[in-house]
Amino acid sequence: MAPDGRLPMKSDSEFPFWRGLSRDPRAAAREIHRRVAERLTPQQKRAAIAWLPTEDQLAKSFQEAPPKSHLQGLPYFLKDLFDLDDAPTFAGSTFLPEVRQPKGNGALVRALQQAGAVCAGKTQMHEFACGNTGENPHYGDCALPGHPERLAGGSSSGSAAAVAAGIVPFAIGTDTGGSIRGPAAFCGLFGMRLAPGDAFAADAFPVSRTCDAAGWFASTAADLAEINNALVGSRTGGREPRGVYLDYGTLDAEVRNACASAANNLCHPADDATRHGLESVFLGGAPTYAAVTGVEVAEVHAAWLDTHRERYSPPVWQRIDAGRRVDEQTLIRAKVHQQSIRTILTSYFLTFDFLVLPAVPCPALTKAECTPENRTRMLELCAPATLARLPVLTLPVPLPSGLSAGLQVIVPDATSPAISQALDCR
Question: Which of 107, 49, 118, 59 is closest to 82 using CA atoms?
Fold first, then answer.
């Protein structure tokens, strides 16, 4: 935390430090363990980190990183939805390995290995990724670094907290209904959500097979751009990307003002016709998201949802069980609404290259503020891009209170020049 109590908004990359240190694999492994011990209390460690290799294991990983690779020697944490050869996958639960056979290193882990990055551990998360607050009764609620009375957001809570605490320079998460966008905004980080359906998300333990997306967090714009370039590439050139800012959602006043001001660095506010057209279709995205993804998450858990009921936390079990109770007409209406969102954004991107929305409606929540109403407020902001199955860049927005919000930069393609432009503005 900065001396004035604000969340640190880092401008200097840690990539050069780690590239230099990783020339001594033993020293790099020690540094990871030192940072975990010094920057997290035992309670915070349990709530943020699901698995930490020994120093010997880490040193071996640093030693085996391919030389002269794009991300050589850079340590990262991996959200515990992704399988690893060396560690079980619990997905924030207490029992998943008992009912599911792991698949070993997935496509994203293999891509990171080939790029030279070193997996320094796995991170905790909202149980089964079924929540956006970062609460977890099994391992503890994941606190916002520097503000232990507030939560890091979810479901990729541990990954965001590990980067915000300065333990690793980047971390991997997933985003279905905002699980990268929310934690990135709350923790003052840059976040990238890819499009659903790509190979990086396909072999992770699913929430929604049609809406799950992989992605990552970094503390600086330059670092996020470097990860993007290494893993998905980018496009530049041509005309300057065009977009508008849509002041959408039920926002706290300080968030509304700060996001509008920050968005001015990227684009103009939406004209009345564009604003009305988008808002009229976006409205009600949260219940549509709940119906579409609820049916899919219930299908994932169908084989053990009842037999292991006592092993779930009650709110998560109830959330998954609700997916079994979505009636046919509700699902039909939800899919019609989803298609309307996809159609209007497809039309929008015929004229524009990006769309900017607030990422969160409020600063990071206290435990008492983790209410269904606030969960819905967050989902309403993130649902349009989720339901349209689009990539999203998240930019942090400092708040006068010393906390953070964020902007979503929604694009039609993860290599869009609008991403590079938005990161250059930082």
Answer: 107
What's CA 347's distance to the chain center, in Å?
Answer: 27
The whole-angstrom separation of Cα 391 and Cα 419 is 10
Angle between helices 417-424 and 221-231 in degrees, nearest 10: 160
> What pTM did the predictor assign?
0.96
Question: pLDDT per residue over 377-426, tens digit each?
Answer: 999 999 999 999 999 999 999 999 999 999 999 999 999 999 999 999 77
Q: What angle do CA 226, 230, 235 make, to 5 degrees?
A: 80
Pairwise CA distance, residues 274 & 155, whole Å = 32
Q: Can you list the pairs that 209-213 forms with residues at least 24 positions away whose Cβ atoms lie under 8 Å?
A: 209/296, 209/300, 210/292, 210/296, 210/389, 211/176, 211/177, 211/289, 211/292, 211/293, 211/296, 211/386, 211/387, 211/389, 212/174, 212/175, 212/176, 213/174, 213/175, 213/176, 213/180, 213/391
Query: How many CA atoms are closer than 13 Å to the CA of 148, on its beta-carbon side?
Result: 8
